[in-house]
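Project outcomes to date are best conveyed with an example. Our students and postdoctoral researchers have been running inverse folding experiments weekly, and each run begins with a structure described purely in C-alpha cells. The record below, which covers 218 residues, was selected by the lab manager from last quarter's runs and is presented without edits.
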C-alpha cells in the first residue's frame, strides 16, 4: 500500500497496523463484551431462584470462575506478555472450562432449570477466553515460541515484567468500575442471597424438628 493511501486511510480514523487493530479489539471489544452477558447470566440465576435450589455451592462456583478469568486479565493489563503470563492465561482458560462444566452439572443436579437462553449465554461467555487468548498469542508469537522452548535464553521469561507502555489510568479506572458494577456487585448480591436463604432453611428445619420432638414427648 502506498504512503499516500495509508495516509488517506489514517486521516479517516482507520488503522493500517494489524497489531494496533488487534490491541484495540482486545481493549475495547472483547474485554467490555464480558459485562453484558455476565449481567444477563446473573439475571437468569435470579429468575430461576438459585437460592432455593443449588444455593451457595453454585454461587461459589460462579465466584471461582470469575477469579479464574479475573486473575489473568488483571495481570495482562499490568504486565508484559511473556512465557510466565502465557502459562497463567493457558492454565486459567483450561481451569475455567472445567469449572464451567462443573457449574452446569451442579445446576442440573439441583433441579434448577437451566433455560436455553442461559445455555446460550454460557456458550458466549465460554468462548471469550479462547478468543482473547488466541488474539494475544497471535500478537506475541515470539513469546509463544519462547514458551515452547521453556524460556531458554530469556532472563525475563519467568517473572512478571511491568508494561513498557502502561495503559492509561482512565482506561484502567473504567474497567475497574465496570467490573465492580457488572460483576462484583451482582454476584456478591447473589452469594449473599443464597447464604441468607440457606440460613433461613436451617432455622426452619431446626424449628420444625424441635416442634416434632416436643409433640412426640407429649
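After processing, the design step wrote out the following sequence:
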Amino acid at each position: 500500500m502506498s504512503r499516500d493511501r495509508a495516509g488517506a486511510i489514517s486521516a479517516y480514523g482507520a488503522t493500517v497496523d494489524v497489531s494496533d487493530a488487534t490491541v484495540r479489539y482486545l481493549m475495547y471489544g472483547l474485554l467490555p463484551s464480558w459485562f453484558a452477558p455476565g449481567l444477563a447470566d446473573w439475571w437468569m440465576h435470579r429468575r430461576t431462584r438459585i437460592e432455593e435450589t443449588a444455593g451457595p455451592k453454585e454461587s461459589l462456583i460462579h465466584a471461582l470462575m470469575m477469579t479464574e478469568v479475573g486473575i489473568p486479565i488483571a495481570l495482562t493489563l499490568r504486565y508484559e506478555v511473556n512465557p510466565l503470563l502465557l502459562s497463567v492465561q493457558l492454565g486459567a482458560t483450561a481451569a475455567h472450562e472445567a469449572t464451567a462444566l462443573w457449574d452446569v452439572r451442579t445446576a442440573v443436579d439441583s433441579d434448577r432449570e437451566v433455560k436455553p437462553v442461559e445455555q446460550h449465554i454460557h456458550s458466549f461467555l465460554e468462548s471469550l477466553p479462547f478468543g482473547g487468548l488466541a488474539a494475544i498469542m497471535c500478537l506475541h508469537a515470539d513469546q509463544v515460541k519462547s514458551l515452547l522452548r521453556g524460556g531458554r535464553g530469556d532472563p525475563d521469561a519467568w517473572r512478571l515484567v511491568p508494561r513498557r507502555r502502561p495503559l492509561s489510568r482512565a482506561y484502567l479506572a473504567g474497567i475497574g468500575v465496570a467490573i465492580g458494577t457488572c460483576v462484583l456487585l451482582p454476584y456478591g448480591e447473589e452469594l449473599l442471597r443464597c447464604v441468607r436463604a440457606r440460613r433461613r432453611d436451617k432455622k426452619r428445619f431446626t424449628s420444625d424438628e424441635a416442634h416434632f420432638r416436643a409433640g412426640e414427648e407429649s
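The chain is about 75% helix and 0% strand. The chain has a mean pLDDT of 89. The training component of this project remains on track.
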